Amino acid sequence: MSFRDMGLPRRSVLLAPLAAGVAALLGTRPAGAQEKATLLAKPVDRVPESPDDSAWNSADMLPVPMAPQAVVKPRLYEAGIAAITVRALYDTDRLALLLEWEDAKANTELGDVADFRDAVAVEFPADPGAGIPYFAMGEPGRPVTIYQWKADWQFGRDHEVSRRHPDMIDDWYPFSGRPAGEIAGLNDYVGDRIYLTAAAAGSLLSDTALQARTPVEKLRAEGFGTLTPVAAAGQDGAGNGVASDGRWRVVITVPREQAGFTFAPGMTLPMAFAVWDGAKLHRGGEKAVSTWYFTSLEQPVGAALYWAPIAAVAGVVVAQLGGLSILKRKAGSGGRGAR
């Protein structure tokens, strides 16, 4: 049976491959893509450092529901933060995440004993080749890397104790590097800091130089109770948070080249998230957490890759049109011979 017998014009049949090729290139996402668990990080010339950068407008967005950390003590039974949204972009050196969530009160200082900070963290396997670890702090033999943005690290310098309590009395310490009557900061102390226990122990929570450089702390863990900060020299995270209209918007950027792997285009990696609400006294293990989601780095596509399939399909069509022309000439010459 010929195409004409089927009621199909020969030109329509010959143009079908071109239409199919264009449709494949321009096709819409399937309905199932609406229920997503994967975030697509798009390539940009330079990742934005500000949450207000317009580059985020074109970034893919992933809604992430949060749940209370109720696996180990100290447990929570209410998340406090119900959900966050995550966007991702990357450049030649860094992967950037924009994390957003509703929070009526921004907690940015640790001025008193009962004050707790707002914070947010992203976690991923330290070695994806070892398999996917347990989403909550990893597991023995399958460690995780964590980058945590801390509101007090970014804004703490705006809330010095001496400003909050200007009339408090401070005893003079001769090795503080400050005269009597003045309150010394950590960097004022000279010589042995043996009596500044946190600083003497190397705690990054007392490293004001690091906190002035970045509000993001890099940590490692391989199970509950194993959380360990990376040494100050290896602190390579960066970030910036903005609180406005009852909402936090925080950018965390990390190097694509990690100790155990590199975030490569085309790679898909599990990621989990955690949020702390200082107003609800969240700290340590008292936090809202997510399970694993996935982040995939989109392959940069050049113009040649866009046009190559179209050119290939067009070549097929040209060949078929050429074949049709030959058939027509043969049919015409055969008809004249019959006369």
CATH class category label of the largest domain? Mainly Beta
Shape: globular
Number of self-contained structural domains: 2
Largest sheet: 14 strands, mixed
**What would you report as the Rg, rounded to the nearest angstrom?**
30 Å
Separation of termini? 27 Å
Strand residue percentage: 15-25%
- Stated plainly, the CATH topology of the largest domain is called Immunoglobulin-like
CATH architecture of the largest domain: Sandwich
Order of helices and strands: HEEEEEEEHHHHEEEEEEEH
Count of helical stretches: 6
Unreliable runs: 1-34, 303-309
What fraction, in percent, of the residue positions are helical?
A: 10-25%
- The tally of strands reads 14
Structural class by secondary-structure content: alpha+beta
- Mean pLDDT value: 81
Descriptive labels:
disordered N terminus; 6 helices; 2 domains; Immunoglobulin-like; 339 residues; alpha+beta; 14-stranded mixed beta sheet; 21% helix
Please, could you describe this protein's structure?
The chain is of the alpha+beta class and 339 residues long. It folds into 2 domains: 10-23 and 303-338; 44-297, Immunoglobulin-like (Sandwich). The protein has helices spanning 10-26, 151-155, 161-164, 197-200, 208-213, 303-338, and strands at 38-43, 61-65, 67-68, 83-90, 94-102, 119-125, 144-150, 216-221, 228-229, 238-244, 247-255, 268-276, 288-289, 293-297. Strands 1, 2, 3, 4, 5, 6, 7, 8, 9, 10, 11, 12, 13 and 14 form a 14-stranded mixed beta sheet that branches. A hairpin with a 3-residue loop joins strand 4 and strand 5. Helix 1 runs antiparallel to helix 6 (303-338). The longest helix has 36 residues, at 303-338. The radius of gyration is 30 Å and the shape is globular. The two termini are 27 Å apart.
